[in-house]
């Protein structure tokens, strides 16, 4: 048995494809880095419920969650365990209304999205373009 169990907060994010098949990325207010829409789940919140809530709060978009792409874990800057799960979604909407968490957004092609995002998020974009319909990739 493991003595120290992982006690993560869970973050859910999505590669969202719009009507033109571009991917939505958001620029954080805090550090100006780019990320996929999403965030941490609340206690006792279902995954799809939490992902829909986070996307709605950050962008005002309604999405159809289609598939799971990737899961990874890490320890953040505050020495807290984190678990990230990435999904693929689509929307017919293009008009985005940002929350205070973000200062900018872009609908970009997959190459540009992957270039601007962290390694795990770039991998999720890559997998979404490959039409993943099998098991998700774990711990990249």
Describe this structure in words.
This protein is of the alpha/beta class and 140 residues long. The chain has a single domain (9-132), classed as Nucleoside Triphosphate Pyrophosphohydrolase, CATH 3.90.79.10. It is 22% helix and 36% strand. It contains three helices and eight strands, in the order ββββαβββααβ. It has helices at residues 47-59, 110-116, 119-129, and strands spanning 9-17, 23-28, 34-35, 38-40, 64-75, 81-90, 102-108, 137-138. The strands form two sheets. A five-stranded mixed sheet has the order 4-1-6-5-8, with helices on both faces. Strand 2 and strand 3 (34-35) form a beta hairpin. The longest helix is centred in the middle third of the chain and has 13 residues, at 47-59. The two termini are 25 Å apart. The mean pLDDT is 89.
């Amino acid at each position: 048995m493991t003595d120290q169990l992982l006690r993560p907060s869970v973050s859910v994010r999505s590669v969202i494809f719009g009507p033109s098949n571009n991917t939505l990325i958001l620029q954080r207010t805090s550090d100006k880095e780019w990320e996929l829409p999403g965030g941490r789940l609340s206690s006792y919140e279902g995954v799809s419920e939490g992902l829909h809530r986070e996307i709605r709060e950050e962008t005002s978009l309604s999405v159809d969650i289609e598939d799971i792409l990737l899961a990874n874990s890490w320890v953040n800057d505050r020495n807290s365990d984190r678990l990230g799960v990435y999904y693929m979604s689509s929307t017919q909407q293009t008009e985005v209304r940002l929350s205070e968490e973000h200062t900018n957004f872009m609908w970009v092609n997959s190459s540009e999205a992957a270039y601007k995002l962290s390694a795990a998020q770039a991998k999720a974009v890559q997998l979404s373009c490959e039409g993943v319909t099998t098991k998700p990739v774990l711990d990249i």
